[in-house]
Amino acid sequence: MYLLDTNIWLELLLNREKAKNVIRFLNFAKDSDIYVSSFSMYSICIFLSSIKKYDTLVRFVNDLSENNIEIINTNLNDIHSIVAIKKVMI
Fold first, then answer.
1. Residue 71, beta-bridge partner list
2. CATH code at position 54
3. How far is CA 90 from CA 1, 30, 35, 47, 83, in A?
């Protein structure tokens, strides 16, 4: 299971410096479960709308749907788990 945060998606959507790394990761993980949090989704929608990237936003939503990427809600226990995992990774 992979939970990708806002910045990873924006790296790809805005074709930033590490977009190719994101593409490589998505190709590697395509048979795995990839998720995006509802908070990240809202953040991406707000950000892309604020810079008038409406076509990019529509394409992103369509791509998520076509690739069975799920939007999940997180609770405080989930946040604690994410922080604990992140600590181990550093």
1. 36
2. 3.40.50.1010
3. 19, 25, 22, 28, 11
**Residue 37: domain span:** 2-89
List pLDDT tens digits, range 62-75: 999 998 899 999 88
CB-based contact 69:36 (threshold 8 Å): yes
- Closest residue by Cα to residue 41 from 4, 78, 2: 4
Nearest residue to 79 via CA among 25, 42, 37, 41? 37
Q: pTM, whole model, 2 decimals?
A: 0.81
Q: What is the domain count for the chain? A: 1
Q: 89 falls in which pLDDT band (50, 70, 90)?
A: confident
* Gap between the Cα atoms of 34 and 40, Å rounded: 13
> Hey, is 90 helix, strand or coil?
coil
The whole-angstrom separation of Cα 4 and Cα 17 is 17
